[in-house]
Amino acid sequence: MKTVFLSIYLIISSFVLFAQNFTQKFGTITQEEIAMKNYAKDKSAEALVLFDVGQSYFSRIDYTFDVIFERTTRIKIFSDAGQKWANIEIPLYQEGTIYEKIEAIEAYTYNFENGQLVKTALNIKDNFVEKINEVWSVKKYTMPNVKAGSIIEYKYKVSSQYLFNLHDWEFQKQIPVVYSQYTVNMVPFYSYSWILQGTQKFDDYKTYEKEGSGGVYGSKTGHQELKFNDVVHQFVMKDVPAFTSEEFITSIKDYIIKIDFQLEKYTRLDGVSTDVITTWEDLIKDFSKYKDFGVYQKKCKKIASKLINIDSLKTKSADERFNFVMNYVKSNYTWNQINFRYAYKNPGEITDAKTGNSAEINLLAAGLLNACDIEAYPVLISTRKNGRIYYDYPFEHFFNYVVILAKIDGKNILTDATEISCSNYRIPPRAINDKGLVIDNKKVKWISLQSPVLSEIQTKISINFNGMDLKANVEKTADEYWALSYRNSFAEDKEKIEKHLISKNYTLENNSITVENHTQLEKPYIIKYTVSYKTDNINTKIYFQPFLNESIAENPLKQPERSYPVDLIFSQKQFYESTINIPDGYKVDFVSPDYKFTNTLCDINYSTQQTDKILTVRFDYTLKNAIYSAKEYAKIRAYYDEIVKRGTEKIVLSKI
After folding, report:
1. Where are the beta strands (DSSP E) in 122-225?
2. Which of 6, 329, 440, 557 is deepest in the core (most CB within 10 A)?
């Protein structure tokens, strides 16, 4: 009878667990939430958002409004890896007298210990602030006593004078979400447009006029009183799957389910309406006239003669003048790592401080180029981490960075003075994100940010045997964006290079590392080193990989399917050549057969050649496109399988 009763209890409990609707009452934790060991719809999830509920509404402040944003969230932590979801991040805006502030915050961690529900409160002093750019920062709180099995919940309220941009809302995260709801209470004086991304519809959407919710506006102004009610929009998504990202993606912001708002127009008490942004033409004109953008660039042009000797450049070619200016700015001004679309300081402050944000540095460089009779325009872009630009919507806040378009001998050159290790004829990878908007009053022009060149690494290996083990001299030569990657990762720091090589399971020979052309950006970056490498020895046979651990050992594309592009940033080639001196008393017992594959997307080549006691093995692959569509994903994944196979194929030597 006990067994039968227990079975019935488990069946009922299981039904309750899967059929439940989690309560959204703050502070009320259910037994089912405590008992959850995993999420039935995604058992691999490291954590689960039980609910995420937010609302934005307008609060009357004298003769204007503040926007109030409130959020309540509860998350179940399933594993140690899921503990990273037990932190609170609140973005805050401040520019001049316009600011946002946290009005209230309350948060708790719940653990079931010794048969009791233990509740631990957040110490609101346990926080730090991360500066994102000149106007945005993120306040971060660390939840206490979090471990696998914990439940965390928090609620907070933020008041904002920044009416330009209502709080956006992300329904999807990198963990599953059971329930997500966002409610916006609109007043008639501010009109917002919104963009829905990642889905065609909501699970539930309703809009209605909330009787008695508004008020009277204008009673103290001399204007006629205006009575109004809030118009409520409520958006709901349920059982939202985790967004699973992997290698070669710009930003998850480009693909998750979210809604984005921007002020379209506002209406005064006298009924006069003002459009905030109407067209791309208007946006370009506005940027050209802004004191911290177009006017700033013109001021930089005016002070150019105080910074550089313009007269001495008059006899130089356009290309020489261009390089002189870019090298001058790169050598004398330091990027402060802040991405922004405006100059925050005036040119005099920047030239004194010798440091600035991305807009300040590149607008300065553009102004100096103009002073040297180089046609140069600032280009507004969105960095890869910031996400995509929607070209149908002229929203200023899409942009967070500035690069330069220079015209040299009839050619368009994209350049960026913030990246000192990058060629003057390239922009850094962080800036390669589809297209940029050229700020030229004459017309609306979008320019592709993609690199037109192939980036290549050549790896040449010379192998000699010492008994059953081998010693190899390795030389890696990298150009274009591969060279930039090496320069930024290692520079001339041999300790960093040594740690990297040790992580690849090499035994490094003392003082064998050399670096060439670190500062000569027009030349390839070269690293040389000597390593010892353990072979596999079975029944007097020697097994080893001719390319050691230099080629990739596993496919970076794990998902069987993918709904978003494979973005490599730039087209690329890897070439490997291994020259193997066969030891005395041994012969080649096995090598892979030659292989050749080519199409419009990819080339893969593998070949071997033996002359007397020397075996040469060559392997190369070229990924011809910087971006492959989601439809091409299966093919690219298959190519990577072949690349891994060819690059890690072993050679077998046997005793004669």
Report:
1. 127-131, 136-142, 151-160, 169-170, 177-186, 190-197, 204-217
2. 329
Instruction: Say which residues have a Cβ less than 8 Å from residue 63's Cβ, sequence separation at least 6.
Output: 220, 221
For helices 358-371 and 294-302, the axis angle rounded to 10 degrees is 50
For tokens 């995604």, the residue is 42
Quick one: which H or E segment has residue 61?
strand 47-61
Nearest Cα neighbor of 383 from 639, 569, 192 is 569
Over residues 287-316, the pLDDT tens digits come to 999 999 999 999 999 999 999 999 999 899
- Cα angle for residues 574, 579, 585 (degrees, 5° grid): 145
Q: Taking a C-beta distance cutoff of 8 angstroms, is the pair 343, 359 a contact?
A: yes
Query: Taking a C-beta distance cutoff of 8 angstroms, is the pair 451, 433 a contact?
Result: no
Nearest alpha carbon to residue 368 among 400, 412, 415: 415
Are 42 and 243 within 8 A, CB to CB? no
Q: Of 440, 437, 340, 447, which Cα lies nearest the Cα of 395?
A: 437
Q: What is the pLDDT of residue 91?
A: 95
d(CA 431, CA 41): 38
Q: At what angle do helices 294-302 and 280-289 cross, to 10 degrees?
A: 40
* DSSP element (H, E) containing 544: strand 541-544
Which CATH architecture fits 455-655? Sandwich (2.60)
Q: What is the pLDDT of residues 611-646, one digit of tens each?
A: 989 999 999 999 999 999 999 999 999 999 999 999
Return d(Cα 41, Cα 516) in angstroms, integer: 53
Q: Coil, strand, or helix at residue 19?
A: helix
Question: Which residues, 6 or more positions from 404, have their beta carbon under 8 angstroms from its beta carbon?
Answer: 362, 365, 366, 369, 376, 377, 378, 379, 414, 415, 416, 417
What are the boundaries of each domain within the chain? 45-274, 280-448, 455-655
**Predicted pLDDT at 236:** 97
What does the pLDDT look like over 85-120, one tens digit per residue?
A: 999 999 999 988 888 999 999 999 999 998 899 999
Q: Which of 21-30, 487-496, 563-572 has the lowest mean pLDDT?
A: 21-30
- Class of the CATH-defined domain 45-274: mainly beta
Say which CATH architecture domain 280-448 belongs to. Answer: Roll (3.10)
Give pairs for 277-281: CB < 8 Å, separation 24+: 277/394, 277/395, 277/396, 278/394, 279/394, 280/394, 280/437, 280/444, 281/444
- For residue 11, the model assigns a pLDDT of 33
Number of H helices, E strands in the chain: 11, 37
The SS3 of residue 497 is helix
Q: Which residues pair with 153 in a beta bridge?
A: 74, 108
Count how many residues are written for the chain: 656
| Of the candidates 147, 137, 198, 200, the residue with the CA atom closest to the CA atom of residue 173 | 198
- Are the C-beta atoms of residues 462 and 512 closer than 8 Å to each other? no
Side-chain half-sphere exposure of 334, counting CA atoms within 13 A: 5
- The residue type of 111 is N
Partners of residue 207 on adjacent β-strands: 233
> What is the radius of gyration, based on Cα positions, of the chain?
30
Reading the block at residue 146, the tokens are: 């979090």
- CA distances 368 to 219, 306, 389, Å, are 54, 11, 29
User: Which class for 530: exposed (0-12), middle (13-18), buried (19 or more C-beta within 10 A)?
Assistant: middle
